[in-house]
Amino acid sequence: MTALPQQAPPPVQLTPADFPDSPLSKAFRQPLMLGVFLNLQDIKFSGLPSTSTWTFDYNAAVVQRAEALGFELAFSRTQWLPKGGYDGEASLDAFVALGAMAAVTKTIMLISTMHVLYGPLHPLHIAKYGATLDHIAKGRWGINIVTGHRAIEHEMFGWQRIEHDERYVLAAELFDVVQRLWSEDENYSFEGKSPWKVVNGFITPKPLYGRPVLVNATGSDAGIDFAARYSDIVFITSPGGSHIDSALETLPAHTARIKQAARSIGREIKTLINPVIVSRDTERETEEYANAIVAHAYGPNGRGNGNRQHDSDAHAWRGRQDAKNKPGRGLGGNIEIVGTPEQVVEQLVALKKTGIDGVQLGFYDFAPDLDYFGERILPLLEQAGVRL
């Protein structure tokens, strides 16, 4: 075995929030951050006609429109599924696609979902890729750290699914090393539990604001502990499922627990959640739109349900199976916000009061519905004092 060099004490790890002029610090000044949760995967849970598509050009245009409206964030999921596992015809990789959008945007932050244990990715790769994208995006790029909840995805990479909490142990080891590589001015070496090791590792340039933005999506104890130590933002789900009433009832305790976990070790983190917005000028028009989406929904054996057939040990979605929570309508998103512009604003303000710091918005017909949000709902959010 190669002898590892002796290590100096780690440097202090600064985060983008430590820099008042960083894109993250600017975003944190908003009472309620706004983002878009892109469909880089061809989502097909309903046959109601829609312009939405997985293609890069469509989604880049959505992000540019969101940026023009003053949104702070753009996210997307990434999945690794076998043939027939996706809803529709294709799925782009969020790491590559969101990184590429840095070249066609100027202010919006771009958060790439990465399954950090698949491969396994070497910390030198993550550190070098991340620093490169950080410079291209001028501090606007970040990683949504996920560890892989589906057995079939791990199996695609040649092994059995790693136990849930052990995944976070390995992710913590990985990001301890990645952060050292982002901050060390000298060569760095490491060997631990993971199948990789680093001998005299070094990367340059260093990120502009300490490190790229770090996010993780979680609902479990192990994931919350990880977020408290590493993340700037936690992408959460509603413990009460997708119905807004149950979400508003269960979120206050959940967000308080997450923020207290960070404060207990001297850190502050923000929370994001993913509502789908269904809105029209009147209640009648709104109900007609929502009902049409549901009326055209594919059945459990039809198109749009491929990825739901695979085993998952994720904790975040368990609220949807709890009989005491009100069921949603199957409109997409983690929670469903349905109503006139005024009613949408009331529900978003109510979410803010539960401890939610930002919303990653989804729409059924993404581009035109985002335009509607910008024209009819955003001005009311500003009047309500949750947007500056």
Automatic annotation (TrEMBL):
InterPro entries (alphabetical): Luciferase-like_dom, Luciferase-like_sf, SsuD_RutA_monooxygenase
Keyword Flavoprotein: yes
GO MF terms held by the record: monooxygenase activity; oxidoreductase activity, acting on paired donors, with incorporation or reduction of molecular oxygen
Residue stretches of biased makeup (Basic and acidic residues): 308-325
Keyword vocabulary terms for this entry: Flavoprotein, FMN, Monooxygenase, Oxidoreductase
Listed transmembrane segments: none
Region (Disordered) residue spans: 300-334
Domain Luciferase-like: 48-357
Family annotation (Pfam families): Bac_luciferase
Name of this chain's protein: LLM class flavin-dependent oxidoreductase
Organism, scientific name: Oleomonas cavernae
Taxon lineage: Bacteria, Pseudomonadati, Pseudomonadota, Alphaproteobacteria, Acetobacterales
